[in-house]
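Feature request disguised as a bug: please show the residue count (604) next to ATP-binding protein Uup in the output. Example input:
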Amino acid sequence: MAPPLLNLDGIKLTFGGTPLLDGAALSASAGEKIALVGRNGSGKSTLLKIAAGMIEPQDGEVFRQPSATVRYLPQMPDMDGFADVRAYVEAGLGPADDPHRATYLMEHLGLTGEERPNDLSGGEARRAALARVMAPEPDILLLDEPTNHLDLSVIEWLEEELARTSSAVILISHDRRFLERVTRATVWLDRGQTRRLDKGFAHFEEWRDVVLEEEEREQHKLGRQIVREEHWLRYGVTARRKRNMRRLGELQTMRQRFRSHRGAEGSATMVASDAAESGKLVIEAKGIDKSFGDLTVVKGFSTRIQRGDRVGLVGPNGAGKTTLLKMLTGELSPDAGTVRLGVNLEIATLDQKREAVDPQETLAHYLTDGRGENLLVNGEQRHVVSYMKDFLFKPEQARTPVRELSGGERARLLLARVLARPANLLVLDEPTNDLDMETLELLQELVAGFAGTVILVSHDRDFLDRTVTSVIAPDGGGRWIEYAGGYSDMLAQRGGSKLEDRKARSKAETVETSPKAEQAAPKGSGKKLSFKQKFALDSLPKKIEAVTASIARLENNIADPAFYERDPVSFQKTIAALDKERTTLAALEEEWLELEMLREEMEG
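Example output, currently without the count:
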């Protein structure tokens, strides 16, 4: 195996009470793509900061190759002191780094570089931070929740960019599909210790369940052995005193091991409070429009949502998802068209920005609205501490101020408050942000099994596929289309391939930017492609197919974890060949797209 660029071993760190890290280990060699997973509060971000040199452990060894460059993406980037985004991004470059790389990344992340830091949204700040850490092409790239606040198109681009980088990548993310597509190894941080699986995240959950089952069996065997030894102490034949004392000491050690064993973390219990059943019709929209100045956000959209439907809204940031959501729920009036809400609707809403929470307010006060120690959940009085336990909060946290919660804990708190309210229509805007895998799975089960109706906005493709019955997506110019099924079903109905998606976008942009194009080039003009153009149009698909197959072979080669160790020179050559083939594929696709659009224009 190639020598590691980074190696942490026996890392220990305690912030009072139970150790956060207790002998944790983490290593990465050149080109490795590693998922760092674990429950919220398990210490993943802390371990990543130790790897970056931002926190010193209380014990353990930290080794970084002296010549290796390390870049760390924090959850909350600090842009103070920078005049604009370009200055912030270029500050991450070293003397020998290419400034054009920074420009390339900003362009692909939807930034001009002229944006002012104070004017950035959460998604824009995250994109700027990504450009800053990726621009130097460091030897080690440490990413903490890189997909938070990113739209789907940027997430998919980031997947491809990370897959082809030669940097070692260690990343924390709640986006399961993102982890499945990027990673080739998984490190599980659990109860202060780490376990490593030399396979990508797609294999993690099955492996984790096997590990926990084996641990449970071992603990059971230890308990049975203690019972046997105690029986021997009481009723066994007395042997030499020295031997008895040795056996007694071993029993005391086993008892200590049994008592000190920290079982697997408990699971949250999520149950939405049921309201009276709504009418069969929940929402009916007919021909609704919404514009802000010259910007048309929604144009002529109609839908009919019935009781039991689970509808997902997807699209890039700024497309108008939240605007459409507010119109459908009656919070915002359309400029034209009508929205009719059904009868007996009880709506519980989790908005994207999250409702304002006083950071000084305690958890108990927030959940009960300051009305004593109890709250009504599903028609039953529940003590606030008991209800908090359902969402993995400890009893002593009842008096904890909200400001002391981690991002994941705050997300669970907001969900706890929303789900305590009686509802037959759940409106969830980005509900998966900051949730750990286990809590995400429970939310997924709750949404999929909710007896009422659900409308949700999400960039989590796996979550959408597992929960919704239809997807509403933008189609350009304020037009929105509803597709049956989940996110993958929507892609299949749209044609599935990125090439066709690009063609559709290009055609939409042509129509929007050139409203008189149809007059300038009337249908059926009688013009035809030249022989050379027609030949290229016919032959390009075969070339594209051949290059795509070549890319698949190269990707399969570099996926072999032993390749780098076996032949580092060939590994680097394969990486270079892969980049070249991807550039060739992009050029061929662009050429085909232009010729196909020209053919359609000529033939009408």
